## 1
Amino acid sequence: MNEKSARILAAVFLLGGLAALGISWRLGQADAVILHARMPEAGGWTPADLTVAAGQPLRLRLTSDDVMHGFAIGQSDQPAVDVEPGKVTNLTVIFDKPGTYTFYCTRWCGPNHWRMRGAIIVTGERVEQPVTPPLYAQLGLDIDARREAQTIPAGKPSTQRSAEIFAQFLLPSAQSYLSPGYYRSRSPEQVWQDLRDDPHWVHYSDLQLWDAVAYIWQANTTPEALAEARSLYARNCAACHGESGGGDGVFIGGQVQVQGEAHGFPPGYETVLPTDFTDPRHLLAVSPAHLQGKIIRGGMGTGMPMWGVIFTEEQTWALVSYLYTFQFEEVP
Ligand code: HEC
Ligand SMILES: [Cu+2]
């Protein structure tokens, strides 16, 4: 309903003697927050912090002062809405749980688009929840250490190739290789080495063992998770890491420029390029726990954004599985 017809409706109610309804409608408009979107260089979201009580509606009137932006709330089911220049998008959201939620821009509005974030502080009685640290922290992994695989496959490992090798996984001796605890804490290269050192697998060739590594990866994901992650990747990661994972996304030219400046260095100084996920020496040397840790925490000044406040834990694991599709032949 547009504003004009709402006003007319309210007037009609007033005439009908329902004054109270008209007043409450007016209050409803008055407590709406006007949220302006601007490119990060021009200030990002204004205001950048919003506060609302749990269970209370937060009424937003979203508008853009420059280009097309998008609005979404991290770790919520709220679908993203477009924020168009010169237009107002009304949105009402209600949070049941107190806490701090991150809202962010969903349209690639410029090279610093991913910096366009704000916070919604939801007040209320907090139920103390035990916090489980992410797996990389539990394992004490240094996710900033450079790693390089010494052993890489001669070709792309495939889960399609050999029925014989997969029959092995039905044997009790191979079951522990399929457990999430094992899979998540080891790099593909370490898994390969474990199999190579296992007397049960001694008759298999190096490439067959890589196929087994791919099988372990596939057993720890689902086609649905990969499909969700593919779209998350296309929307949130491809602009830097590249559509096909090569680290050559369309925003890289601009990003390298802003990198140094953002940290007070001259342009082009201290730049880190996005990881090339198609490089087996790199991706096969890092475990799912490492990749998830990087996604959650971000790159500490390297330009890799922090996604922990945006995605759910399931979504981060799905993204991790998806990244290995740049190394392993995909599930048909
Ligand atoms: C603004 C550019 C940018 C975007 C967007 C971006 N990244 Fe990155 N990413 C980087 C840069 C730069 C690095 C390398 C520096 C580093 O490792 O900290 C990196 C590194 C990583 C690493 C670390 C790899 C390793 O082995 O240490 C992972 C994993 C990763 N990105 C995943 C993602 C995912 C998943 C998304 C989307 C949800 C994403 N990135 C979006 C720039 C970006
Ligand atoms: Cu934007």
Note: DSSP finds 14 helices and nine strands in the chain.
## 2
Amino acid sequence: MSPDLAVENGTVCRAPGAAAERRATVVIRGGRVAKVGTNATVPSDVEVVDADGRTVVPGFWNCHVHFTEPRWAPAATAPREALERGLREMLTRWGFTTVVDLGSDPRSTLPLRRRIESGEIGGPAILTAGPAIYPPGGIPYYVRDSIPPDVVDRVPQPADPEAAAAIAREILALGADVLKLFTGSYVARGTIRPMSEPVARAVADVAHAAGRRVFSHPSNLEGTQVAMRAGVDVLAHPPDTAEGVDASRVREIVSHGVSMTPTLKMFAATVSRSAAYLDPILEIVREFRTGGGELLFGTDVGYLTDYSTEEEFGLLERVGLDGPAILRMLTTAPAGRFPGAGPARLEPGAPGDLVLLDGDPMADPSAFARVRLTVRSGRVVYRSP
Ligand SMILES: [Zn+2]
């Protein structure tokens, strides 16, 4: 049973671009938004949170996470408190109420999701890719070391379209909601192995026939073009080997309707913050956006073990995004890509997911990282101390 909750006396921003409503109330009943606005009355039988003038926005999406750290391995049997702490540190403390897991072991992610959805554990909605699919011999060097040698051969690395389609069907049958490809894989530092286009296309065709989306890790121009031509829906990163990815190439990607999660902090934190490395990546994201491309918020946490979103918002500002544009990445853009999977706007009937923020993120996007309270389906899943 979802609890009922009212957040009153907040500055409510129902959606990107909507005018702020001061001293407004959001009432959540049975896990869904029942009333919003300055005239919304609070029923006598619900828990009430005083927002104290803080900003209330819809719950956030993170479209690039991983449940691969050791803490998730025993998710089927671990104590509730331990899993809730992990979810809080990595996700709900940063406002995320819906996440897309782009590669993990379904033996841990599926039980984790079941325990959240049963109401036992407070946490975000999880869409999962299950295991990622690689080119033959194409497990990235930074992943290979963490896989036991006897398991390496069983990691999906289809050699031809028939094998690829069979693997895609198998992963969907396990319970995956999306599929994840490495159309360009760093098999060694500075060495990228592409996936063949027919293999990528076979996976995309199976996914699309089942109404599912496909993400790809592209790495460079070739990996990006394989993804684009194969019909991939979302680039899980911009290509960070930026050679040849000029404005006209970026416009071509946009014209194919491909979305992108920028994951800028991940590049900065795990590779380099030098301008020589980072500026070309920022330029690709800038070009993608000014060309009309759709950006989805995603940080690669789980792979990245520093979970703070602060630097990502700062880098998105450097790319030229303002508060409403970033809120779009966090809410309506992903909700449009995954209809029914999570919140877009705070309006009656929508999922009862919201975030309470210190400050005004429309004027100062760093406020998106100052989360005071996170609510999913009417349940408080994070409250700042
Ligand atoms: Zn990732």
Note: The pocket of zinc ion is lined by residues 64, 66, 102, 300, 303 (CB under 6 Å).
